[in-house]
Amino acid sequence: MLALILVGCAGVQYASSDNQKASAKLDSSASVYIARPANAMYGTKICQGSGYMVGKIIKKSFSRHLSKVELSKEAISEKEALGEAKRGGFTYFIYADVLCWEDHATEWNGKPDKAEVKMVIFNVSSGNIIDSSIVKKTGPWMTVGGHPKDILRKPMDKYISSLFATK
């Protein structure tokens, strides 16, 4: 019986309504400055480390396409980020907002983890928005362990890859 339950869970796929394709294409010889997002809130609770984790995921995804990628050491405002990006000579800067970060004990309560991040990409020299999208993912209803960061990596990679022209 236990084997049947385990086999039944093995085929569970992530529910997703994410992966918007980017409307703009970025230059692969460019550079990007990422403003570390502030931590998300879940009700009145601060989701400690969520901004840092999202920033690291974004940085890793961009690092697959660009050679110069930098993440701010702390959460900063959009205005501060633009200033830092200009001083650093970056082409683009990313301002991300963690809209949802739900880390549930899914294996006990059946509530899936959720992550949702609004991504805004700016051209540093003009300050204009190049692209704005929401990347979100809901985890499976049955899991052993896991966190929102684990379900966010693939959709973030897919979105960021869509920003670059395929060869």
Overview features:
disordered N terminus, 167 residues, Rossmann fold, globular, two-stranded antiparallel sheet, alpha/beta
Which consecutive residue ranges, at least 5 long each, have pLDDT under 50? 1-19
Distance from first to last alpha carbon: 49 Å
Rg from Cα: 17 Å
Strand order of the largest sheet: 4-1-5-6-7
In percent terms, what proportion of residues is strand?
25-35%
Instruction: Kindly identify the CATH topology.
Output: Rossmann fold
Q: Would you state the CATH class?
A: Alpha Beta
Q: If helices are DSSP runs of H or I spanning 4 or more residues, what is the number of helices?
A: 5
Please name the CATH architecture: 3-Layer(aba) Sandwich
The share of residues in helices is 25-40%
CATH superfamily: ABC-type transport auxiliary lipoprotein component
Order of helices and strands: HEEEHEHEHEEH
How would you briefly describe this protein structure?
The chain has five helices and seven strands. By secondary structure, it is α/β, with parallel strands linked by helices.
Describe this structure in words.
31% of the residues lie in helices and 29% in strands. The protein has 167 residues and is of the alpha/beta class. It has one domain: Rossmann fold (3-Layer(aba) Sandwich). The strands form 2 sheets. A 5-stranded mixed beta sheet has the order 4-1-5-6-7, sandwiched between helices. The protein has a two-stranded antiparallel sheet with strand order 2-3. Strand 6 and strand 7 form a beta hairpin. The longest helix has 15 residues. The chain is globular. The relative contact order is 0.23.
